[in-house]
Amino acid sequence: MKKSVSVNYNELRHIAWKNRLRILNMVHDGASGHLGGALSACDIITYLGECVIDYSSDERDRFILSKGHAVTALYAEFNEIGIVKNEELSTFRKLNSRLSGHTNREKIPETEVTTGLLGQGVSYGVGMAFAKKLKKSKKTVYVMIGDGETHEGQIWEALMEAGHFKLDNLVLIIDRNGLCSHQPVENVISIEPLKERLESFGWFVKDINGHSMEEIDSAITSLKSQYGKPKCIIAHTVKGKGISFMENDGQWHRNIPTEKQYNVAKEELEAQIGGNDVESI
Amino acid sequence: MKDNIILLDTSLRDGSHLNGGRFGKNMIIDTVDGLCRAGIDYVELGFLTTNHYDKEISLFGSIEDARKVLPQDTKNTRFALMAYRFDVDNIEDYDGGMIDLIRTTFHVYDFEEGISNCKKTIKKGYKCSVNLINFYGAYTEEQKINNFKRINDIHPFAISMADTYGLLDVPEIEYVYELADKYLDKDIILGIHLHENKGISYALAQRFLQIKDKNRIALIDGTLYGIGEVPGNLRIEQICEFMNKYHGTNYNMDEIYKLIDQYFIKLKKIKNWDYELPYAISSKYGINRKYAQFLIEKGDVGIYDINRILANVHGPDKPSYNKALITELYNKFKLEKGYLSL
Q: Is CATH 3.40.50.970 correct for A10-278?
C-alpha cells in the first residue's frame, strides 16, 4: 500500500473517466484492441495505480493483469502516473511500439508478467506471493482475472494451491462483468455459485460493486484484516462501462468503433471529464 | 509529551470495575498526586455519574466534584473524565481548568448516542476523546472505515481504539493503525487502550509506537500495575520505562513504584486482575470476556472444556454477552460428558 495516500473519491472517479477516454483513443487509433473488458476493469485498475501500487519502489506490491487483453486500462493508468508517455498512447498495437496488445514485461517491466494466454495470471500470483512469504516480505500480490477466464482449468489449480498454502498476501480480483467474450459467462459454462466455490477452496471472498471507488477502497484496504487465507474480491462490473451503447453489449468485447461511434463515445466521456483535462488527453 | 506520544493513566477509572470505584479518599488523592509527580501527561480521574458524590469513591457528578481530588500542584499533568452512559449536558461548561478532556464511549449499539455526546462535549468547550469500545471485534471493516469518516466530521481531540476483549495480535495492531491513519484526519490524536487477555499488551503498545507516523500524535492508555477488570490492562509503569529508555522522557519511576507498593499490590491481593488462560481463549474466539468468566466461576470445567465450549459462540452473540446461551452451552457440554443429569 502506498504510504500517506489521502483517498479522494471524486478525484479517483475523475481519473477513471480520463482513463476511459485514453482507452477509447488507444483502441480507435490502433484500430485494434478490447474495449469492453478494459472499460469494466478501469475503475479498479485506476484505484490500484493511484492508491496501492508504488511503482517507484522495487519492493512494491505487485499487480498482475491476467486478462491481458484489457491492457489498455493499465496503459491508461500508466499514462496517468507517468510510466507511459502521452505520445506513446497512439502507438498501441503498432509495429515496434512498447504498447503491445497484451501485457509484455520485456517492453514495460511494470506490467510484471507477460500475459495473453488466459488462465496463467493466478499461477504467477501464487508463485510471487509464495516467494514474498519466503522472503518475509509484507507486500501483497494482486491479480485480476475475468469471470470468463475462470473457465480455464489452470485457474482452479492455482486457487487450490493458494488456499492450501494460506497465501494471505494474495488478492484475486475477478472482473465479474458477466460476459465471456461476446456471450454470457453462464451460457458458456456456469461458474456459480462462485463465492461458495472459492470459499470451499479456502479463500476469503468479498462481493463489491467494481465501479464504486468507495467500495473498492474499502474492500482493498480492509482485506488486510483477514489472516491465514488468500482473499478474493468478486467485483461486479459492467462490460463497456462508461460508454452508453457499449455497456453490456458483448459485441464490444472486440469491436472497433467506426468514426461516428468513436465521436459519440468520445463526446460522452468528455462530458464526464469536463474542462481543460480533456485537452491533456 | 515527547515525540508526539501522550501517556494517559486510567487506574482510577479502569480499577473501578473491581470495586465500584471505592478506593478510599487517601488512595484516590495519593494516586492522582503521585501520577502528577511522575509526570504522566493525562490522568483519568474516574467515571462521570449521576450519583451523589462520595469522596471515598472515584465517581464524579460534576467537574467541581472531580476538582476536589486534584493536588495543589498538578505539575504539567492534565485530567480527564469518562462519560459512559452519561449525558454530558449534566456537567458544567469548560472553565479553562486542568480537567479539560471528556472521554465519550461509542459502542456498536449506541454509536449515534456517542456522536451526540461528543458534539455536546465539544460545544461545552472541552476536548473530546471518542472511545471506540471493542473497536476491532464489534464492527465490520466497512463500519470501521465509515466510523472514521463520521468521526472526522465531528473532529474530536482524539479517538481511542479500545481492544476491549484483548483480540489483537501484532498483525492486527498494525492493521488497525494503518486503517485509522489512512481514514482519520491527520490532526486527530490516535489512541489505543489495551488489555492483557493474551499477555502481550506491552508488546502491542511498543509496536503501535514503532509504526506510528511521527507527525501523528499517539495516546497510550495504561494503568498502575495493570489494574482493571481481569485480565487487566497495559501497565503504565512498563510503557513509562519504555518511553524513558527509547524516547528520552523523564517519567519519575520512583513516584510510580511508590504508588504500586503503597496501594496496588495490596489491592491485587484482595482481588486479582492478572492474565488467566480462559480470557486468552475468549479473545481467540473474538468474544466477550464474560463468557470465560462464567465458565471460570462454575469451577468445574478445565481449560480443554472451556476451549471447546467457547468455540460455539457465534455471530451477534460474540461481542455482546448472552448468558442464556453460555448457560445452555455449559449444560449441554456437561450432559454430553455425563456430569449432569436431568
A: yes
